[in-house]
Amino acid sequence: MLAIMGAMDEEIELLLAELQERETLERPGVTLYRGVLEGVPVLLTKGGIGKVNAAMTATHLLHAGATRVIFTGVAGGVHPNLRVGDIVVSTDLVQHDVDVTALNYAPGTIPGETPCWAADEHLRAVALEAAREVEGVQTVEGRVASGDQFIASSEGVQRLWTEFSASCAEMEGAAVAQVCAKAGVPFVVIRSVSDTADHSANVDYRTFMPLVARHAKQVVRGMLTRL
Ligand code: ADE
Question: Any idea where the Nucleoside phosphorylase domain is (predicted)?
Answer without folding.
Answer: 2-224
